[in-house]
Amino acid sequence: MGERKKFVVRIFVAAALLFAVSGYRQLSMRYLPEDFLRPYLVWAVYMLLLFGWQYTISTKITQKSMRIHLTAQNIVSILYLTVRFVQDAFLYVNIPWMRFTGYFINIAAIFIPLFGLYGAFYLGKADDYRISKKWYLLLIPACLLSVLALTNDLHHFFYYIIPEESQPNLYFHPHIGTYIVYIWGLSIISYQVYVIYRRNGTAKSDSLYRKLIPFYEPILLLLFSIPYAATAYVVRFELVEYSAGLIFILVLCWQLYILTGLIPVNTQYEEVFRRSTVAMQILSPSGETIAASENAAEITPAILEALKREQQFSSTEDITMHLHPVLGGYMIWQTELSQINHALRELQRLNAKLKEEQDLLAQEIRIQSDEASVQARNDIYDSLSSEVAGQLTLLTELLSKESLSENDWDRICLIGTYIKRFSNLRLTYQEQQMIPMGDLALSLQDMAKCMKNVGIRTSLDFCPTSYLEPEFILFIMKALESILEEADFRLVSTAIQIGSTVSFEITGTACEFVSHSLEGGYGLQAEKIQAGYRLLLLQEREVVQS
Q1: What gap in Å lies between CA 53 and CA 64, rounded to an integer?
Q2: Distance between CA atoms of 281 and 98, rounded to whole angstroms?
Q3: Is residue 381 within 8 Å of residue 372, measured between CB atoms?
Q4: Coiled-coil intervals in this record (predicted)?
């Protein structure tokens, strides 16, 4: 029998047992009023059912805080039904105490829904999740109402007394406090239903009964309470005792939430473990196997200790084991890295081949173009190629020489670095609609390093005082490359300053620089300084003002 069918059978068995003991109670009260076993037997069955529910909470529900709150709810139920047992077994001839202990139903009606709401907040949440502390403020009115209920004889806020009735008696005439508890319980339960419905949702394909399951609880509680409220809670015959009926309606609804998947539970599916491709297994704290996949590797004490320390362990180059602590043991699974490692080795081989063929830059653009084609963005790389076409042409001219000098190789690296860094900045802009300032700093650092390799003393002062627009960042890179190409890479020194303004101070060039406009509304303003030029990158209107 499957786990789901077993669960349904247990629900029906519990319901049958509840109706059976309720029938026995009614018949015994009617025909065997002196039956002293009745309260003991009824209470024992109630406890059996509630402890069975506690076992379900402990073994099925995975979220720790949810288990705690549902356990608190169950404890309140157990305590109240124990009070009912004391009433039936020992207080049935003591009307004053019977009436006083009857007030405890309000305590149950206040706290049982509240703990249920707290439990619902943790649906689908991790163990470290905590609800907002403001929700615990509800404990203040809950405690206040409880005190008022237990002291009703002093103020009759919950139940009033009709003067012509003999006192004390078992007739509870509901007053404003009782209706407040009704409103409290229904409000809390209704919001609990909303939380469950919102956290899980329903698909359009779900059947109507599944969509309505979260609403069964308030509907059943309301329908079950109407006959009792209409008769001041004194009835001649009841199918199920009122207190027990309310509690078991709540338990039944939680069971339905579990059965229909509205609450994530630990179903301990053996078939899932057996067929798992990630070699799952659960170990006890001592290392004994509780459940394991067919392909799970044996966990030695040494491996278990390593997993406890590091949370992962590489048994081979291609297999890594992972550990996560769970209630009562450890969950272990493995990841297969052979395909990833194969891909990495293939990339290394391709990189080596690209270096040997001196075609690394063209291959990098092609690789980026291939990656972009998977995302349907070939047009981005087409436009990018056109923006660096001049530098690619310059590279082709250098590489076409019969023999390359060391200076030629340094120029190739400098031009290649520009293409790479400019392309990265442009792609970042296309992807994110912005360029992080750190990316510009890294690009300029790479350019400065390559400029030093071609014999240009280079300094970089990167202290921007405000956010730089992405287009301006791209023009900074373009302007630097334009200056280098115009000077034919023959400079003594270059000082790059990124602050409130962007400037390039160059020395040792025979080339004459003049102010001129760039595309996009930017301009390069040239100022003659000793042994060189100071070039400011400004917007067009700033150039005119200067």
Answers
A1: 16
A2: 55
A3: yes
A4: 337-371
> 321 and 302 in contact (C-beta within 8 Å)?
no
Q: Is the dihedral of CA 273, 278, 282, 286 positive or negative?
A: positive
Element (H, E) at 501: none
The helix/strand/coil state of 358 is coil
Which helix H or strand E contains 327, and what residues bound it? none
* Continuous segment of H or E residues that includes residue 223: helix 216-230
Decide if 124 contacts 199 (C-beta within 8 A).
yes
Backbone φ and ψ of 269, nearest 5°: -70, 115
Nearest to 332 by CA among 358, 359, 305, 354: 305
Structure tokens at 437: 């300032």
- Give the ranges where 235-300 is alpha helix by DSSP (H): 242-259, 270-275
User: Looking at residues 229-234, what average pLDDT do you find?
Assistant: 66
Q: In degrees, to the nearest 5, what angle opens at C-alpha 213 toward C-alphas 207 and 218?
A: 150
Residue-wise pLDDT for 464-480, tens only, equals: 888 888 888 888 888 88
Is 14 within 8 Å of 49 (Cβ atoms)? yes
Task: Tell me how crowded residue 13 is: count the other CB atoms within 10 A of its CB.
Answer: 12
Encode pLDDT of 105-158 as tens digits. 899 999 999 999 999 898 777 778 888 999 999 999 999 999 999 999 889 898
User: Is the CB of residue 475 less than 8 Å from the CB of residue 520?
Assistant: yes
Q: What are the φ/ψ torsions at residue 286 (nearest 5 degrees)? A: -85, -5
Return the ∠ at Cα 306 (arms to 303 and 309), rounded to 5°: 150
In 30-54, which positions are buried (b, 16+ CB within 10 angstroms) versus exposed (e)?
eeeeeeeebbeebbebbeebbeebb
How does DSSP classify residue 152? H
Lowest mean pLDDT, pick from 422-426, 529-533, 538-542: 538-542
Cβ neighbours for 396, distance < 8 A, ≥ 6 positions apart: none
Between the CA of residue 211 and those of 193, 198, 305, what are the distances in Å? 12, 12, 47
